[in-house]
Amino acid sequence: MGRCTVIGAGSWGTALAIVLADNGHEVRIWGHRENQINEINFKHTNEKYLPEVELPTSIVGYFDLKAAIKDIETIILAVPTKAIREVLRNLVTLLTDKVLICHVSKGIEPDTLKRISEMIMEEVPGHLLQDVVVLSGPSHAEEVSRRQPTTVTASSINMEAAEKIQDLFINQHFRVYTNPDIIGVEIGGALKNIIALGAGISDGLGFGDNAKAALITRGLAEISRLGMKMGANPLTFAGLAGIGDLIVTCTSVHSRNWRAGNLLGKGHNLDEVLNNMGMVVEGVRTTKAAYQLAKKENIEMPITNAIYNILFNNCPPKEAVEGLMGRGKTHEMEDLYLNSKKL
After folding, report:
1. Which domain holds residue 175?
2. Are 141 and 208 found together in one domain?
3. pLDDT tens profile 214-255
4. For the residues of 34-103, what is the DSSP string, one character each?
5. From 106, 114, 192, 212, active-site residue
6. The total number of structural domains that make up the chain
7. 212 given a catalytic annotation
Protein backbone atom coordinates (compact mmCIF):
# COMPACT_ATOMS: atom_id res chain seq x y z
CA MET A 1 0.00 0.00 0.00
CA GLY A 2 1.10 3.58 -0.65
CA ARG A 3 2.02 6.40 1.73
CA CYS A 4 0.15 9.58 0.83
CA THR A 5 -0.21 13.07 2.24
CA VAL A 6 -3.15 15.25 1.30
CA ILE A 7 -2.15 18.93 1.52
CA GLY A 8 -5.34 20.84 2.24
CA ALA A 9 -8.07 19.83 4.68
CA GLY A 10 -11.00 21.38 2.86
CA SER A 11 -13.97 19.41 1.52
CA TRP A 12 -12.23 17.98 -1.55
CA GLY A 13 -8.97 17.10 0.17
CA THR A 14 -10.86 15.38 2.98
CA ALA A 15 -13.11 13.46 0.57
CA LEU A 16 -10.07 12.19 -1.34
CA ALA A 17 -8.40 11.20 1.93
CA ILE A 18 -11.49 9.03 2.60
CA VAL A 19 -11.07 7.31 -0.79
CA LEU A 20 -7.39 6.63 -0.12
CA ALA A 21 -8.13 5.32 3.39
CA ASP A 22 -10.85 3.04 2.03
CA ASN A 23 -8.20 1.59 -0.29
CA GLY A 24 -5.95 0.73 2.63
CA HIS A 25 -3.24 3.35 2.06
CA GLU A 26 -1.41 5.19 4.82
CA VAL A 27 -3.12 8.58 4.68
CA ARG A 28 -2.07 11.85 6.28
CA ILE A 29 -3.88 15.13 5.84
CA TRP A 30 -2.31 18.53 6.52
CA GLY A 31 -4.19 21.69 7.38
CA HIS A 32 -3.19 25.12 8.68
CA ARG A 33 -5.91 25.31 11.37
CA GLU A 34 -4.87 23.42 14.48
CA ASN A 35 -8.41 23.10 15.85
CA GLN A 36 -9.53 21.52 12.59
CA ILE A 37 -6.67 18.98 12.70
CA ASN A 38 -7.56 18.14 16.31
CA GLU A 39 -11.16 17.55 15.22
CA ILE A 40 -9.99 15.17 12.47
CA ASN A 41 -7.78 13.23 14.88
CA PHE A 42 -10.02 13.04 17.94
CA LYS A 43 -13.57 13.31 16.61
CA HIS A 44 -12.92 11.86 13.12
CA THR A 45 -15.05 14.57 11.53
CA ASN A 46 -14.52 17.76 9.52
CA GLU A 47 -17.88 19.38 10.17
CA LYS A 48 -17.24 22.75 8.55
CA TYR A 49 -16.48 21.22 5.18
CA LEU A 50 -18.22 17.82 5.26
CA PRO A 51 -21.03 17.94 7.80
CA GLU A 52 -22.37 14.63 9.12
CA VAL A 53 -19.58 12.60 7.50
CA GLU A 54 -17.58 10.21 9.68
CA LEU A 55 -13.92 9.94 8.66
CA PRO A 56 -12.00 6.65 8.74
CA THR A 57 -9.92 6.48 11.91
CA SER A 58 -6.86 5.63 9.81
CA ILE A 59 -6.70 9.22 8.46
CA VAL A 60 -4.17 11.12 10.57
CA GLY A 61 -4.26 14.92 10.63
CA TYR A 62 -1.10 17.04 10.82
CA PHE A 63 -0.57 20.70 11.64
CA ASP A 64 3.22 20.39 11.19
CA LEU A 65 3.98 20.28 7.44
CA LYS A 66 7.44 18.76 7.89
CA ALA A 67 6.05 15.84 9.88
CA ALA A 68 3.16 15.46 7.44
CA ILE A 69 5.45 14.80 4.46
CA LYS A 70 8.20 12.76 6.17
CA ASP A 71 8.91 9.56 4.17
CA ILE A 72 5.94 10.20 1.89
CA GLU A 73 5.78 8.87 -1.70
CA THR A 74 2.80 10.80 -3.06
CA ILE A 75 1.44 14.27 -2.31
CA ILE A 76 -2.15 15.16 -3.15
CA LEU A 77 -2.23 18.94 -3.54
CA ALA A 78 -5.73 20.09 -2.62
CA VAL A 79 -5.41 23.80 -1.87
CA PRO A 80 -7.00 26.74 -3.74
CA THR A 81 -5.12 27.99 -6.79
CA LYS A 82 -4.16 31.25 -5.06
CA ALA A 83 -2.36 29.31 -2.28
CA ILE A 84 -0.47 26.85 -4.47
CA ARG A 85 2.78 28.76 -4.93
CA GLU A 86 3.08 29.60 -1.22
CA VAL A 87 2.44 25.98 -0.20
CA LEU A 88 4.91 24.65 -2.77
CA ARG A 89 7.62 27.06 -1.63
CA ASN A 90 7.18 25.78 1.92
CA LEU A 91 7.22 22.18 0.70
CA VAL A 92 10.43 22.62 -1.26
CA THR A 93 12.32 23.66 1.87
CA LEU A 94 11.20 20.46 3.63
CA LEU A 95 11.40 17.77 0.93
CA THR A 96 14.45 15.49 0.92
CA ASP A 97 13.46 12.97 -1.77
CA LYS A 98 11.53 12.97 -5.02
CA VAL A 99 7.75 12.85 -4.71
CA LEU A 100 4.88 12.33 -7.10
CA ILE A 101 2.56 15.36 -6.91
CA CYS A 102 -1.08 14.97 -7.89
CA HIS A 103 -3.01 18.22 -7.89
CA VAL A 104 -6.78 18.27 -7.65
CA SER A 105 -7.46 22.02 -7.87
CA LYS A 106 -9.19 23.68 -10.82
CA GLY A 107 -7.97 27.09 -11.88
CA ILE A 108 -5.61 29.24 -13.93
CA GLU A 109 -3.32 31.82 -12.37
CA PRO A 110 -4.23 35.39 -13.39
CA ASP A 111 -1.48 37.54 -14.94
CA THR A 112 0.99 34.64 -15.45
CA LEU A 113 -1.81 32.63 -17.16
CA LYS A 114 -0.19 29.41 -15.96
CA ARG A 115 -1.97 26.11 -15.52
CA ILE A 116 -1.47 24.45 -12.13
CA SER A 117 0.89 21.78 -13.45
CA GLU A 118 3.05 24.56 -14.90
CA MET A 119 3.07 26.33 -11.52
CA ILE A 120 4.19 23.10 -9.83
CA MET A 121 7.02 22.57 -12.30
CA GLU A 122 8.15 26.16 -11.83
CA GLU A 123 8.21 25.93 -8.04
CA VAL A 124 9.52 22.39 -7.43
CA PRO A 125 13.07 21.62 -8.65
CA GLY A 126 13.55 18.57 -10.86
CA HIS A 127 15.59 16.71 -8.24
CA LEU A 128 12.56 16.77 -5.91
CA LEU A 129 9.78 16.18 -8.43
CA GLN A 130 9.10 12.70 -9.77
CA ASP A 131 6.08 13.65 -11.92
CA VAL A 132 2.96 15.84 -11.95
CA VAL A 133 -0.53 14.41 -12.34
CA VAL A 134 -3.92 16.14 -12.39
CA LEU A 135 -7.04 14.39 -11.10
CA SER A 136 -10.20 15.99 -12.46
CA GLY A 137 -13.78 15.30 -13.45
CA PRO A 138 -17.39 15.59 -12.27
CA SER A 139 -16.87 15.02 -8.57
CA HIS A 140 -18.61 16.85 -5.73
CA ALA A 141 -16.81 16.24 -2.45
CA GLU A 142 -20.14 15.83 -0.64
CA GLU A 143 -21.00 12.81 -2.79
CA VAL A 144 -17.50 11.29 -2.84
CA SER A 145 -17.33 11.45 0.96
CA ARG A 146 -20.57 9.47 1.13
CA ARG A 147 -19.17 6.89 -1.28
CA GLN A 148 -21.66 7.67 -4.03
CA PRO A 149 -20.61 6.54 -7.54
CA THR A 150 -18.11 9.01 -9.04
CA THR A 151 -15.89 8.87 -12.14
CA VAL A 152 -12.83 11.05 -12.80
CA THR A 153 -9.74 11.08 -14.97
CA ALA A 154 -6.02 11.18 -14.13
CA SER A 155 -3.76 12.95 -16.60
CA SER A 156 -0.02 13.47 -16.93
CA ILE A 157 2.67 13.93 -19.54
CA ASN A 158 3.98 10.61 -18.20
CA MET A 159 1.23 8.00 -18.45
CA GLU A 160 2.95 5.72 -15.94
CA ALA A 161 2.49 8.48 -13.36
CA ALA A 162 -1.20 8.84 -14.29
CA GLU A 163 -1.61 5.09 -13.89
CA LYS A 164 -0.01 5.24 -10.42
CA ILE A 165 -2.66 7.75 -9.35
CA GLN A 166 -5.32 5.61 -11.01
CA ASP A 167 -4.17 2.61 -8.95
CA LEU A 168 -4.10 4.63 -5.71
CA PHE A 169 -7.66 5.90 -6.01
CA ILE A 170 -9.74 3.46 -8.03
CA ASN A 171 -12.33 1.41 -6.15
CA GLN A 172 -15.95 0.28 -6.46
CA HIS A 173 -17.26 3.78 -5.69
CA PHE A 174 -14.56 5.92 -7.31
CA ARG A 175 -13.67 4.98 -10.90
CA VAL A 176 -10.57 6.55 -12.43
CA TYR A 177 -9.74 6.72 -16.14
CA THR A 178 -6.47 8.01 -17.60
CA ASN A 179 -5.94 10.66 -20.28
CA PRO A 180 -2.62 11.85 -21.78
CA ASP A 181 -3.96 15.35 -22.54
CA ILE A 182 -3.00 17.27 -19.39
CA ILE A 183 -3.57 20.63 -21.09
CA GLY A 184 -7.16 19.76 -22.00
CA VAL A 185 -7.92 18.21 -18.62
CA GLU A 186 -6.66 21.29 -16.75
CA ILE A 187 -8.34 23.77 -19.09
CA GLY A 188 -11.67 21.92 -18.94
CA GLY A 189 -11.58 21.70 -15.15
CA ALA A 190 -10.73 25.37 -14.74
CA LEU A 191 -12.98 27.02 -17.31
CA LYS A 192 -16.15 25.10 -16.45
CA ASN A 193 -16.26 27.13 -13.22
CA ILE A 194 -16.82 30.28 -15.27
CA ILE A 195 -19.76 28.73 -17.07
CA ALA A 196 -21.12 27.47 -13.72
CA LEU A 197 -21.11 31.05 -12.45
CA GLY A 198 -23.15 31.92 -15.54
CA ALA A 199 -25.57 29.05 -14.90
CA GLY A 200 -26.10 30.28 -11.34
CA ILE A 201 -26.65 33.82 -12.58
CA SER A 202 -29.21 32.55 -15.09
CA ASP A 203 -31.10 30.69 -12.37
CA GLY A 204 -30.84 33.66 -10.01
CA LEU A 205 -32.44 35.85 -12.68
CA GLY A 206 -35.30 33.35 -12.91
CA PHE A 207 -34.52 32.06 -16.38
CA GLY A 208 -35.43 28.50 -17.28
CA ASP A 209 -33.87 25.32 -18.59
CA ASN A 210 -33.68 26.63 -22.15
CA ALA A 211 -31.28 29.36 -21.10
CA LYS A 212 -29.14 27.00 -19.01
CA ALA A 213 -28.90 24.41 -21.79
CA ALA A 214 -27.78 27.09 -24.22
CA LEU A 215 -25.26 28.43 -21.72
CA ILE A 216 -23.72 24.99 -21.10
CA THR A 217 -23.56 24.18 -24.81
CA ARG A 218 -22.09 27.49 -25.93
CA GLY A 219 -19.84 27.49 -22.85
CA LEU A 220 -18.38 24.18 -23.99
CA ALA A 221 -17.67 25.77 -27.38
CA GLU A 222 -15.71 28.55 -25.64
CA ILE A 223 -13.76 26.11 -23.51
CA SER A 224 -12.90 24.01 -26.56
CA ARG A 225 -11.91 27.06 -28.60
CA LEU A 226 -9.44 28.30 -26.01
CA GLY A 227 -8.23 24.82 -25.10
CA MET A 228 -7.42 23.92 -28.69
CA LYS A 229 -5.49 27.18 -29.11
CA MET A 230 -3.39 26.15 -26.12
CA GLY A 231 -2.68 22.71 -27.56
CA ALA A 232 -5.44 20.54 -26.08
CA ASN A 233 -7.07 17.61 -27.84
CA PRO A 234 -10.70 18.60 -28.60
CA LEU A 235 -11.88 15.08 -27.72
CA THR A 236 -10.96 15.77 -24.09
CA PHE A 237 -13.78 18.29 -23.88
CA ALA A 238 -16.28 15.58 -24.84
CA GLY A 239 -15.11 13.55 -21.83
CA LEU A 240 -15.17 13.63 -18.04
CA ALA A 241 -12.95 16.70 -17.64
CA GLY A 242 -15.00 18.57 -20.24
CA ILE A 243 -18.73 18.09 -20.64
CA GLY A 244 -18.90 15.79 -17.59
CA ASP A 245 -17.50 18.35 -15.17
CA LEU A 246 -19.42 21.14 -16.90
CA ILE A 247 -22.79 19.43 -16.42
CA VAL A 248 -22.30 18.62 -12.75
CA THR A 249 -20.97 22.08 -11.87
CA CYS A 250 -23.70 23.95 -13.75
CA THR A 251 -26.65 21.96 -12.42
CA SER A 252 -25.96 21.12 -8.77
CA VAL A 253 -26.57 23.05 -5.56
CA HIS A 254 -23.33 21.44 -4.29
CA SER A 255 -21.42 23.68 -6.72
CA ARG A 256 -19.88 26.72 -5.03
CA ASN A 257 -19.63 28.46 -8.38
CA TRP A 258 -23.31 27.87 -9.17
CA ARG A 259 -24.30 29.10 -5.71
CA ALA A 260 -22.15 32.22 -6.08
CA GLY A 261 -23.64 32.94 -9.49
CA ASN A 262 -27.14 32.39 -8.13
CA LEU A 263 -26.57 35.08 -5.49
CA LEU A 264 -25.17 37.45 -8.13
CA GLY A 265 -28.25 36.85 -10.28
CA LYS A 266 -30.45 37.73 -7.31
CA GLY A 267 -28.79 41.12 -7.00
CA HIS A 268 -26.00 40.66 -4.47
CA ASN A 269 -22.63 42.27 -5.24
CA LEU A 270 -19.42 40.23 -5.47
CA ASP A 271 -18.10 41.12 -2.01
CA GLU A 272 -21.39 40.10 -0.41
CA VAL A 273 -21.38 36.83 -2.30
CA LEU A 274 -17.83 35.89 -1.35
CA ASN A 275 -18.45 36.76 2.30
CA ASN A 276 -21.63 34.69 2.27
CA MET A 277 -19.94 31.63 0.72
CA GLY A 278 -17.24 31.18 3.36
CA MET A 279 -15.24 29.00 0.93
CA VAL A 280 -13.10 29.72 -2.12
CA VAL A 281 -15.02 30.28 -5.36
CA GLU A 282 -12.40 29.38 -7.96
CA GLY A 283 -14.47 30.62 -10.89
CA VAL A 284 -14.06 34.27 -9.88
CA ARG A 285 -10.27 34.18 -10.14
CA THR A 286 -10.38 31.94 -13.22
CA THR A 287 -12.71 34.35 -15.01
CA LYS A 288 -10.03 37.03 -14.75
CA ALA A 289 -7.35 34.64 -16.06
CA ALA A 290 -9.52 33.36 -18.93
CA TYR A 291 -10.44 36.90 -19.92
CA GLN A 292 -6.74 37.75 -20.07
CA LEU A 293 -5.96 34.57 -22.02
CA ALA A 294 -8.71 35.23 -24.55
CA LYS A 295 -7.34 38.72 -25.18
CA LYS A 296 -3.78 37.41 -25.47
CA GLU A 297 -4.71 34.59 -27.85
CA ASN A 298 -7.33 36.63 -29.74
CA ILE A 299 -10.03 34.03 -28.99
CA GLU A 300 -13.70 34.99 -28.99
CA MET A 301 -15.26 34.12 -25.60
CA PRO A 302 -18.48 36.14 -25.25
CA ILE A 303 -19.82 34.27 -22.19
CA THR A 304 -16.52 34.70 -20.35
CA ASN A 305 -16.51 38.39 -21.28
CA ALA A 306 -20.04 38.79 -19.95
CA ILE A 307 -19.19 37.09 -16.64
CA TYR A 308 -16.04 39.22 -16.37
CA ASN A 309 -18.08 42.39 -16.80
CA ILE A 310 -20.53 41.28 -14.10
CA LEU A 311 -17.75 40.42 -11.66
CA PHE A 312 -15.27 43.22 -12.24
CA ASN A 313 -17.06 46.03 -14.11
CA ASN A 314 -20.30 46.11 -12.09
CA CYS A 315 -22.39 45.25 -15.14
CA PRO A 316 -25.96 44.29 -14.07
CA PRO A 317 -26.48 40.55 -14.79
CA LYS A 318 -29.68 41.13 -16.81
CA GLU A 319 -27.88 43.67 -18.98
CA ALA A 320 -25.02 41.19 -19.59
CA VAL A 321 -27.49 38.52 -20.70
CA GLU A 322 -29.24 40.95 -23.02
CA GLY A 323 -25.84 41.74 -24.52
CA LEU A 324 -25.20 38.07 -25.19
CA MET A 325 -28.61 37.56 -26.78
CA GLY A 326 -28.22 40.66 -28.94
CA ARG A 327 -24.91 39.67 -30.51
CA GLY A 328 -24.58 39.55 -34.29
CA LYS A 329 -25.53 36.45 -36.26
CA THR A 330 -23.04 33.54 -36.26
CA HIS A 331 -22.93 29.95 -37.57
CA GLU A 332 -23.09 27.24 -34.92
CA MET A 333 -21.31 24.65 -37.07
CA GLU A 334 -18.19 26.81 -37.32
CA ASP A 335 -16.92 25.49 -33.97
CA LEU A 336 -17.62 21.90 -34.97
CA TYR A 337 -15.83 22.40 -38.28
CA LEU A 338 -12.77 23.86 -36.58
CA ASN A 339 -12.73 20.97 -34.11
CA SER A 340 -12.95 18.37 -36.87
CA LYS A 341 -10.04 19.97 -38.73
CA LYS A 342 -7.92 19.48 -35.59
CA LEU A 343 -8.56 15.71 -35.49
Report:
1. 3-180
2. no
3. 999 999 999 999 999 999 999 999 999 999 999 999 998 888
4. HHHHHHHHHT--BTTTBTT-PPPTT-EEES-HHHHTTT-SEEEE-S-GGGHHHHHHHHHTT--S-EEEEE
5. 192
6. 2
7. no
